[in-house]
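PROTEIN DESIGN WORKSHEET
SECTION A - STRUCTURE
LENGTH: 121
TOKENS:
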């Protein structure tokens, strides 16, 4: 087994931080909650039960302790989510001023930061 391999296994334990999987080669690995799916995972136990068969990708094998990190998310295509209804801009795009405000104030901000650093020495 090496990093990047796609392997099958059986869910052997469920914790709030992830799912433990007994792999077909006799080793055990962990699918961290962030690697279960794209987006927010509301309830692991609702989606996974002990004994479930899963296909996972090996993300990492710790060379010191042999722990195996797994992912289901890496095998899934990115699913389109809710469309972005509005974007957050650093500037007011309607006024077409771009980064002009930052350019005008940058020198003052730098001087203020340097003065603060000098005071704290």
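SECTION B - SEQUENCE
RESIDUE ASSIGNMENT:
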């Amino acid at each position: 087994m090496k990093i990047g391999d796609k392997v099958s296994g059986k869910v052997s334990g469920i914790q709030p931080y992830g799912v433990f999987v007994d792999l077909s080669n006799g080793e055990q690995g962990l699918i961290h909650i962030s690697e279960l799916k794209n987006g927010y995972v509301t309830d692991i136990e609702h989606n996974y039960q002990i004994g479930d068969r899963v296909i996972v990708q090996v993300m990492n094998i710790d060379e010191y302790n042999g722990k195996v990190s797994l992912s289901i998310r890496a095998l899934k295509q990115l699913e389109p989510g809710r469309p972005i209804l509005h974007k957050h801009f650093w500037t007011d795009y309607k006024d077409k001023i771009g980064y002009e405000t930052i350019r005008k104030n940058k020198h003052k901000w730098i001087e203020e930061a340097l003065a603060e650093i000098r005071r704290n020495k």
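SECTION C - NOTES
The chain is about 20% helix and 30% strand.
The helical segments are 44-47, 100-119.
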